[in-house]
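Repro case for the chain-ordering regression, as requested:
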Amino acid sequence: MNSAIKTAAIAKTQVTTASRRAILIWLGIGLFSLFLFSLFLGRYPSPGLISFDQLNTDELAQRLIVNLRLPRLLTALLLGVTLAASGTVFQMLFSNPLVEPGFLGVSQGAAFGAAFCIVFLGGAAVYTQSMAVIFALAGLGLSYLLGRKIRYGGWVLRLVLAGIAVSALFSAGLGVLKYIADPLKQLPEITFWLLGGLSSITWRHLISILPATLAGLLILYLFRWRLNLLALSEETAFSMGAAPKRERILLLTAAVFPTAAVISVAGMVGWVGLIMPHIARRLFGSDTRLTLPASMLLGGIFAILCDDLARTLLPGEIPLGILTSLLGALVFILLMISHGLKVEK
Amino acid sequence: MNQQFLTFENVFFGYDKKSPPVINGLNLQINEGKIASILGPNGAGKTTLLFLALGWLRCSSGNISLLGKPLQNYNRKSLGKLIALIPQSEHIPFEYTVLEYVLLGRAPYLPPLGMPSDADQEIALEALERVGISHLYSNSILGISGGEKQLVLAARALTQKPRLLLLDEPTSHLDLSNKYRLIKILRRLRDEGTTILMTTHEPEIALAISDDTILMNNGQVLSTGNTSEVVNDANLSLIYSVPVKIIEVEGKRQVQWI
Amino acid sequence: MKKIILSIMLILFLSGCAPASTPSSVPSLPAPTNPPAAVEVAQPTATQSVTEGFTIIDALGREVNFTKAPSRIVVTGRALFMVLDAVYSFPQASERIVAIGNAAQGSSNFISLIDPNYDAKILLQSDAGAEQIAAVQPDLVILKSSVAESLGKPIEELNIPVVYIDFETPDQYERDMTILGKIFQSEERASEVLDYYAKTVGGIQTSLQDVTEKPSVLMLYYTDKDGAIAFNVPPLSWMQTQIVQIAGGSPVWADANPAKGWTKVTLEQIAAWDADKIYIIAYTANPVEVVEQLKNDPQWKSLRAVKENNLFAFPGDLYSWDQPDTRWVLGVSWLAANLHPEKFPDFDIMELITDFYQTLYNLDAKFVEEKIQPTFRGVLP
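-- result from build under test --
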């Protein structure tokens, strides 16, 4: 090979890689700083930042930060990271930049499970969480099984169709549950859960979702380069030494488990999983070796930002899902206007 | 030279239990270091045969062996280092650079969770050079022409350093100049020792490039052997159901449409 | 690779199956991970004097300890006015409550009328979070048990005492009034109020003890949300059903409502029940106007109860008297007299109302005449 071109090429790619790594590090620093900043932000004793003096002298303030703000921020972080990572994985596995982690009946299943628990089983947080996870996975399982029965279309089309059907089923079930729910006690709880929010988060909630989320995220992170292969057709991925069916199931599971877990404590929070991968791709190209960690960081930043607004902007708590949808949709529109979503025609 | 490069022994294959088998009792030998075409009309079962050779499809009975060892006895990574596939087309809606895309071919040489290194990058760049598009390495794959995209897929396959290269209808979407380019590349690869097995429905391509031809129709292999013997008026008219003539022009055999 | 995948899947599956590993125990508070001070459910200023200390057992069975009567109380949540009306039966309420949520139903706000310090109070949004409440520096937060998980727990995490009450059925009234008595350290006052309720309800039950025939009663809650008119029946456990039973009526919808809230019923069903007496409840609309409209409606005209002139608007003043507000005692008294007029020949509604406001809120007849009477809804003077 013409070694001049080769050397130039290698040098250029090294520069690109280095600059991308730098952006990644800056994102990490940004996330960390935002986290620290948010610890001091809130409505106690008045809207805004709490001063160090107050923090040193006021026991209530100390307890507030340690027992309420800290677990809440960590959960927001996990929420953002998980949804963004799952979104990236789903978009790669389905070769479709417009899918969300709640796809395939996962979101609607979780909503149905939680509502079922609130209406019939008393709605204690522990059970609500468990039911949300169980039904989220049931949604995925049903979509998968149904997809195998569908007789036409490729792998992607079958799963998408099955996912739509299963989501619709759970949605209808949710409607029935809302209808028979007690409008004074249960319906507001269900509605609040559906809109998403972190106002009830305590350490117990955070600890309960840690195993599933950390395990899943770790697996996704380790597979971040191999994810590229799994976006290809099955025989092509096979020809490159992959086990496409098995690896796809593994990654789907590793994405859905954490998603179900965070939905179970935070309710339905949308758009994070859709938007963050797009922004990540805009900054880092399409190689998931970089876009996966990037969307994780971006997701964390976005979620913490939205949660800060949710609990600080107004005296009452704004449901988190509303903020993520609002800001997410705005960002999406900006993305579309500025560059156009580059999709192959 | 190991004559037993790729052999099919009494291979049966069907897509599901209810319909009749697509491949019926096939016996075939692919010789090393040659270009072999699987020629036949659409729906003849050519791609099925190709995917059987890849190891992606499993035959329901019979045996397919590569270098004397049955395909299913290879672990996937080893197979990936021996066989590479250039698919007919690929739809990826994400904006990879050409180099990133070609790097994916290094997968069989990486540990399970490994990622390409600088050395792998060099190999990828060399592969791009071999197919003549190294200047496109930082272009987006969504922004290059169809012909160039095909060459990218070829470069990716070459980074696997395969001994057997499988191509699915490689020239069907290419214009004349790109067809020519690809043919030149395939010939050079064959001369360097790579075995090539490709499907095509164009007899001209088979005549132009392959040493051996496997004629297929309706899941059956009608004839296999040296191209000059197998590709003749009678066989072509039979499988295409149209009158076809082979003529010789300046020592080269061509298809003449009547 | 296969082994890695399988073992990873196994780990993931097991970990995902155990999200509910940590049990939640309601009575005891979870220990904070980094306690800056000792964990104690007491005043933020930890005093050692135990002389005045007392313990409350709240609606969820939790034991809450106090060293002295709380003086910075926050009462918040949904459908708040019902709880507040009960709380304000204690004269100490006005001084000791520093922040309340939304005390209105529709445009009526009783608390603003009777609390001289109302304007000084901090008004919380109905969806205020734990931080917002903490900013008020309360030494007690009173909540309904339905928000224990979502709002109560985070507040408890700040070591701010929380007491849960419900005030939704007559039985709960007795329990929760006693709790309030302890909170205000005014147990004689709690007994006073409970005696009033016991006497009134007991009086009704005594007068009805020889009754053999119970008229069939249908209570319908009228809504016209989004322009769609609907009639709803209450669940069996609610106050609306219970006052019908206490007042000597027989609720026709006993088997009809499996849900936990208001359930819509069709006109067909209403006709099928063929109740002796039909009462229309409305919270934001005027029930009297609704009843007038229905009397002129051709379909309603054909109902036996309407023909026999037994379609009534359920009365109320600032708030309708059917709800688990303190005024339910007025509602049940009125209903009993309406269902069995012969048993209550001396029934004087004005006397009842004046007596109620005097006993509960120490408000005289003049106040009733000026402030309460103009808000009367239903067949009232």
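Ordering looks correct now. Chain B touches chain A at residues 51, 54-56, 76-77, 79-81, 83-85, 87, 90-97, 99-100, 104-105, 107-108, 113-116, 118, 121-122, 125-126, 129, 134-135, 137-138, 140, 142, 160, 166 (CB under 8 Å).
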